[in-house]
């Protein structure tokens, strides 16, 4: 149904992509790259004011 070559992503794939994008934004913000984080949001067509971030240092930094 959601084959790799069919051009349709599985709902879980879309959710995973959104989470990864949020983690990238959170990472940029927490390391002090605020302008880069804002640019990332602009590229993703997100509004930073509507995003809720985890506590510093953030998921990506802690995991990596």
TrEMBL record:
It is found in: Nucleus. Its main location: nucleus. The keyword Nucleus applies. It comes from the Eukaryota. GO terms for cellular component: nucleus. Keywords: DNA-binding, Nucleus. One of its GO terms (biological process) is positive regulation of transcription by RNA polymerase II. One of its GO terms (molecular function) is single-stranded DNA binding. Signal peptide: none annotated. This is LisH domain-containing protein.
């Amino acid at each position: 149904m959601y084959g790799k070559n069919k051009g349709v992503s599985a709902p879980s794939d879309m959710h995973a992509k959104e989470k990864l994008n949020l983690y990238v934004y959170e990472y940029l913000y927490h390391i002090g790259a605020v302008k880069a984080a804002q640019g990332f949001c602009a590229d993703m067509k997100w509004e930073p004011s509507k995003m809720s971030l985890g506590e510093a240092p953030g998921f990506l930094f802690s995991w990596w």
